[in-house]
Amino acid sequence: MAKFIMLFFLVLVFVFVGRRHGAVSSFEIEEATIDGIHKALGDKSLSSRKLVEFYLNRIQALNPKLNAVIEVNPDALAQADAADKNRKGTSSSGILEGIPILVKDNIATADKMNTTAGSLALLGSTVAGDAGVVEKLRKAGAIILGKASLSEWSAFRGFEVPQGWSARGGQGKNPYVPSASPCGSSSGSAISAAANLATVTLGTDTDGSIICPSSANSVVGIRPTVGLTSRSGVIPISLRQDTVGPICRTVSDAVHVLDAIVGVDPKDPETAKAAKFIPKGGYKQFLKAEGLKGKKLGIVRTFLFSLPDGPQTFDKHFATLKQQGASVVDNLEVPHIMETMNIMMSGEMTALSAELKNDLNAYLSALPKSPVKSLADIIKFNEKSAQEKTTEYGQFLFEIAENSQGINGNDVKDALKNLEKLSKEGLEKVMKDKDLDAVVFPHGRGFSLVAIGGNPAVTVPASYGKNGEPYGITFGGLKGYEPKLIEIAYGFEHATKARIKPPLAA
Question: Where does the record place the Amidase domain (predicted)?
């Protein structure tokens, strides 16, 4: 009995001393949410410095295995100290105050870090200022922890370039099954969120670049309506389809980040048009555990049978949707779905190639300092750089883009007309005709259905295959449907609690 009392006393002393000196174990921080961190910061059991130190240590330990972080911010600890000092005063910066975030390496930060889209061609370039979303992150009090790796040039250099690979970052690894694809192009953001290398991360999506890696790495990804978040300062593919959104471990964290980054940016005219979709009071109000109740969902089974264990895995989730109060239109037929999903048949390749040439050249020419000033310069650089592995992986898509006639060519006009038709007569029509709140598709499939029309989607962890490979479930909607999609996603997450920590990050 005396030994037990002495042991109990020692435990109390350890806890007291640890808290007094700000010591925090990895168990307490790992998997921590924004709300949990705020509580710990508020009761002084945690500081932003300790939080940043934790993530920097994890990056140092795990990134050699994962290749998820391309660069850490040398000023991250100074930003953490500033956040701690600010919190001791009377001022408060915002929802992300003191929260470390990794942003994808195609999002400009006006600091000591590079912005390169994973390419050696842009090393040493400088940006005119923070990207619009980074300005909003800083205003909300976030700590820019570093840059996440990605599929180089947002997966639009060539078909042979592996998902998750870049010359700067190396090959990103799926933290659940290293041999499985991490998907892209926001691979590093998704890997980092899954492996607890940051509290939250930011990605970009042109056609599946948030949805697919979120599904493949068992995290939550939100692809916002185009224009809801600013694209200024983001290395582009297509300003018609590009959007910036959060990749996090929970729906609530993703919503907190979304609330911080939406809104008008004078440097991106589309944000003024999309501002009408932003609800008064923000998106946090739609985090409802009963969010599936009363929703009408259309299940797109077209892609289900291409997945190992697909039907068995997802049938139980479809049953959950109904158990939680949703009505379901099963086997939903979306007109022109196969054409929509074929980047060549739909005309999406023609449109994106011309838009890349136009939009990327405009971005590069506006940089205050850059080794390359055009797509043609990048192609030449890649041909001379052994590290870019052009002989092995090629740059087929870049070459198509450079040889295009530009955005005013008749072929591009025809392609854009067809894409508009496919969206209006496909997803938009079936959702309106069936009065659907969302369409449901499995494991990152179906992303072109929403992407070509600039529509939103939310991906949530769902299941794991026999080999441990994650499967996500995606809820897609029409422009401005974020409130409905958040309710649905949060309701599904609350009902299933499907996500488990990745073994490679243990």
Answer: 51-442
Give the Cα separation of 279 and 283 in Å (integer). Answer: 7
**How much is the pLDDT for 147?**
98
The CA–CA distances, whole Å, from 80 to 56, 96, 118, 228, 249 equal 12, 12, 26, 28, 22
d(Cα 134, Cα 120) in Å, to the nearest integer?
23
Contact 199, 64 (CB under 8 A): no
Q: Which residues are catalytic?
A: 104, 185, 209
Q: What is the pTM of this model?
A: 0.94
**What's 306-343 look like in SS3?**
HCCCHHHHHHHHHHHHHHCCCEEECCCCCCCHHHHHCC
Q: Any idea which residue has 């890696």 for tokens?
A: 213
| Structure confidence at residue 262 (pLDDT) | 98
- How far, in Å, CA of 431 to CA of 440, rounded? 11
**Average pLDDT by stretches of 10, the chain with 506 residues:** 40 37 54 94 93 98 98 98 84 83 98 98 98 98 98 97 98 97 98 98 98 97 98 98 98 98 98 98 98 97 71 87 97 95 96 98 98 98 98 97 93 97 98 98 87 98 92 97 98 97 83
Residue 325: left (phi > 0), alpha (psi -120 to 50), or beta?
left
Residue with tokens 């555990």: 289
Residues composing the chain: 506
Query: CB-hemisphere CA count at 13 Å for 474?
Result: 32
Alpha-carbon distance 496 to 354, whole Å?
43
Which is it for strands 470-476 and 457-464: parallel, antiparallel or unpaired?
Answer: antiparallel
Could you identify the residue written with the tokens 């989730």? 317
The predicted pLDDT at position 25 comes to: 46
What are φ and ψ of residue 437, in 5° steps?
A: -85, -25
Phi, psi of 88 (to 5 degrees): -75, -20
Distance CA 52, CA 33 (A): 14
Bridge-based pairing of strands 296-299 and 438-442 is parallel
Query: What sign has the CA pseudo-torsion 363, 369, 375, 379?
Result: negative
For residue 446, the model assigns a pLDDT of 87
Tokens of residue 136, six digits: 């909003």
What pLDDT shows up at residue 3? Answer: 41
Answer positive or negative: Cα dihedral of 183, 184, 188, 190: negative
Tell me how far apart the alpha carbons of residues 314 and 84 are, in angstroms, rounded to a whole number: 45
Q: How far apart are CA 246 and CA 261, in angstroms?
A: 9
Do residues 132 and 268 touch, judged by C-beta distance below 8 A?
yes
